[in-house]
Design goal:
It is built from ten helices and eleven strands. The chain has 422 residues and is an alpha+beta fold. The protein is rod-shaped and about 155 Å long.
């Protein structure tokens, strides 16, 4: 449920509750007003009769007011001179065949030095249930109409008021960190939306600025590091071709291996940095079965060098949506790990189904918890010449395309499973 409809729902509930409360107040106020109106009229009548009697003691109130008024001369002044109001409800009246309320008001006056009590009586017909039900139905239909009208009006008004907010959401959806154009936000007079637009504009500009700085740093780092590394590596290789003692040759060979490792770390970190800001674009369907078979063939010599037995079961024409170059990086890292973390004369099993790739190999148990295998610089076997970035790189690439990877070690085997949600 979107924001405008939530406003409409809340407003409708509020209107409904207010109307119900208003109807209850109206009903009791109507009854109270009717009673109070009758009492006031009788108070005025008592005062009128008292005034006439003070002017004309022979005033015939009975003929003028019939049974409504009674005048009584008291022997003494009553201790309680306050007005007395008596209400007798639900008295059945045969003549009108209905329940009535009998209301009497007694007022005390001193007329020509004598105490009088003047009492007026009035009968009010009680509202019948049928009439009350009709009134309820009328109010109910009015409420239904008002509720429907309030829903329509509140939706239209809330959409108009929230239009800058929805426009900002659309701009956020279209936002690209690589796009140099600023966000096109709607002008609004609402203070909160102006704050939101200002925050989004500042945030997007800072994000783009940081991205371009990182991109520039990455490119400069790649260029500046690779050049001296290649230079030093070339000089070491030249020195290794000269006449050296066995110890000197071993030292230079170790230095050359470390330079290879440093170069690999540099390339992997740069690729990881780029992947952090890589935006998934429309990618075509590629044949995973064919590419996997090609990469296994590419590693045949490497596997044979360590006397590793490779078993593969590859389903034909398994198609996935992924960039081909990134897929090759994923497969190369997984196959390289299966070779690196293995015994001499061990084995590797590779199975590809329609939506799953499983690579398992023999090897020693990992020295770190299984859940940390995909972390950066995490090496399951510290004795191996590994930089600890391969699986982190693989995980990030697969995440970009919405695929999942998991690892576990059981039965003396490392098992990596990639789930392709086709």
């Amino acid at each position: 449920m979107n924001l405008s409809y939530r406003f409409a729902k809340a407003f409708t509930i509020l209107v409904f509750a207010v109307l119900l409360l208003g109807f209850a107040i109206l009903y009791y106020a109507f009854e109270r007003t009717t009673m109070r109106s009758a009492i006031v009229k009788m108070e005025d009548l008592n005062a009128y009769v008292a005034g006439r009697l003070s002017k004309d003691p022979e005033y015939d109130y009975f003929n003028f007011h019939h049974r409504q008024t009674r005048v009584a001369l008291l022997k003494e002044v009553p201790s309680d001179k306050e007005e007395k109001i008596i209400e007798e409800k639900y008295i059945w009246n045969r003549s009108i065949q209905s329940y009535i309320n009998r209301i009497s008001v007694s007022s005390f006056f001193m007329i020509k030095g004598k105490p009088y009590r003047i009492t007026s009586v009035r009968y009010i017909t009680v509202i019948e249930k049928r009439f009350l039900l009709s009134l309820v139905m009328v109010v109910a239909w009015i409420m239904v109409f008002l509720v429907i009208l309030s829903i329509i009006i509140s939706v239209l008004i809330s959409r108009k008021i929230l239009d800058p907010f929805y426009h900002a959401l659309e701009e956020i959806k279209k936002f690209s960190i690589k796009d140099r154009k600023p966000m096109q936000l709607m002008e609004t007079g609402t203070y909160e939306f102006r704050l939101l637009n200002g925050f989004l504009t500042k945030m997007s500009e800072n994000s783009k600025k940081d991205y371009y700085l990182l991109e520039e740093l990455t490119e400069n780092t790649s260029h500046e590091l690779q050049t001296p590394l290649a230079s030093v590596k070339g000089k070491i290789e030249l020195m290794m071709e000269t006449r050296l003692t066995e110890k000197q040759f071993a030292t230079l060979s170790s230095m050359n291996d470390e330079l290879d490792r440093l170069s690999s770390i540099n390339k992997s970190l740069i690729l990881l940095a780029k992947l952090e800001h890589l935006e998934l674009k429309n990618t075509g369907r590629i044949n995973l079965s064919k590419i996997l078979s090609d990469r296994i063939a590419y590693f045949e010599d490497v596997f044979a060098f360590r006397n590793l037995k490779v078993k593969s079961s590859i389903e034909t024409d398994v198609m996935i949506s992924m960039d081909e170059n990134l897929l090759i990086i994923v497969l190369d890292n997984l196959l390289s790990n299966a070779k690196r973390h293995n015994y001499e004369q061990g084995d590797i099993d590779i199975a590809l189904a329609s939506n799953r790739l499983t690579i398992s190999n023999t090897g020693n148990p990992p020295s770190i918890p299984e859940e940390e295998v995909f972390g950066r610089f995490s090496r399951g076997n510290p004795d191996q010449n590994s930089i600890g970035i391969g699986l982190a790189l693989v995980k990030r690439i697969l995440e970009i395309f919405g695929y999942e990877i998991s690892y576990r070690f059981y039965n003396e085997r490392h098992v990596v499973i990639v789930e392709f949600k086709i």
